[in-house]
Amino acid sequence: MTQLKNLQDLYLEQLKDLYSAETQLVEALPKMEQAATDPKLKDGFRTHLEQTRQHVSRLESVFADLGEQPGGHTCKAMKGLIAEGSEMIEQQAADAVKDAGLIACAQRVEHYEIAGYGTVARYAEVLGKSQHVETLRMTESEEKKTDALLTDLAGTINTSALNA
Hints:
Elements (H helix, E strand, L loop, with lengths): L6 H29 L3 H28 L9 H15 L4 H32 L3 H33 L2
């Protein structure tokens, strides 16, 4: 475990956490897409996978700018969130009920990412790294849009689950 001496160290540690979270998500999203039955939800997971790959690339550019390597850290929170998603995938449930559960799992992931990107963007502001702020806020905005999309899908899918 690295000693955190200042905000720059904390910033780097939090960026590594997000990088780990995003790379874990790249592995998990295809499984969620496969488990989903609603075509719009499947499409949403597919779209978010492409977006997540862009997020990984953006983080890699931030690390390159810092002269640092992105690896060497495992995001335990994302590991747990993905484990919950895996449990939902394995559940015996009516299609709409499983889809509603997958949305719940995906929204927990989105909320974690929104919090993480908001935090590192603020650190970047304090550290005077305006280019990083722009990059990180762009990703935070995309995570918020994905969360809103999931909320919209949940309206229909939750109603279907009610009547399953």
